[in-house]
Every structure is written in C-alpha cells, then in structure tokens.
Amino acid sequence: MGTGPTAAEICDRFLTEQRYVNDYVAFLDDHSRIAASDISKINQILKKFKLPTLWIPEKWLGRDHAYAAEHIPLLLKFISATAPAVEQTFEVHAASFQKLQKPKDLL
Q1: What is the pTM of this model?
Q2: b/e string for 96-105 if b means 16 or more Cβ within 10 A?
Q3: Which of 62-71, 77-86, 96-105 has the lowest mean pLDDT?
Q4: Which residue, among 49, 57, 55, has the nearest Cα to 86 in the 3D structure?
Q5: How far apart are CA 91 and CA 100, in angstroms?
Q6: What confidence score (pLDDT) does residue 6 get?
Q7: φ, ψ for residue 99 (rounded to 5)?
Q8: 84 CB-contact burial (10 Å; exposed 0-12 / middle 13-18 / buried 19+)
Q9: Distance CA 51, CA 43 (A)
Q10: Domain residue spans in the chain?
Q11: Considering only CA atoms, which of 53, 85, 55 is closest in space to residue 67?
Q12: For 73-99, how does the pLDDT look when each residue is reduced to its tens digit (9 = 90+)?
C-alpha cells in the first residue's frame, strides 16, 4: 500500500485552498462594486451644471459605502434618466468651444 497524504495534510490543504477562494471572492466583490463616494463626486459635477443627480441612499451620505449588485438596476435607471441632460449640456459647451477663435498674438 502506497503512502498518501495524511488526514491532517488533507485538512490543512483544504483549509488553505478554502481561504484562498474566500479571499479571491472578497477581492472580486470589492472590485466589482461602485463606491458611493465616486457617485458623490459625479453628483458634484452634475450639480455644478444644474443637472439631475444620481441616486445615493440618504443613510450612505458621508460614509464609505458601495453599491451592491441589487442596487445597480436602480442606479442605471438614474444614469439613463440623466444621460440626455448631460449630452445636451456637453453639446452646448462643445459648440461654444468651436466658436472660439485663436488669438492673433498666440504662436
């Protein structure tokens, strides 16, 4: 009969791999969420141009929260509703930049 791994070695390897899988799932979860602080920064820009802002739950304000998978459809709804106003504002500003003329004394 051949000598294989002991029960303790199998248990140790299982726990090591389980820890690796848990760490990897946590890593993916952390990197696949949208931070409320990022949406807050976008909202500051939107407010500057008097555009509708994106949804952030009131209880999250001032805290470091992230949108989970179940929040994404609602956030996308707000983005879809805001996108036309952003596009229109962009077009207005782009048109005004196109009208600018290069100063004659500029090299």
Answers
A1: 0.57
A2: eeeeeeeeee
A3: 62-71
A4: 49
A5: 15
A6: 92
A7: -75, -15
A8: exposed
A9: 9
A10: 33-99
A11: 55
A12: 888 888 898 899 999 998 998 888 888
Q: Which residues of 32-70 are buried (b: 16+ CB within 10 A; e: fewer)?
A: ebeebeebeeebeebeeeebeebbbeeeeeeeebbbeee
CA distances from 76 to 20, 35, 47, 90, 93 (A): 33, 14, 18, 20, 25
Please name the residue that has the structure tokens 């983005």.
79
Tell me the average pLDDT across 9-13. Answer: 94
Amino acid letter, 32: S
Residue with tokens 């998978």: 69
Exposure of 4 by Cβ count < 10 A (0-12 exposed, 13-18 middle, 19+ buried)?
A: exposed
State the residue for tokens 């952003």. 86
Which residues lie closer than 8 Å to 89 by C-beta, 6 or more apart?
49, 51
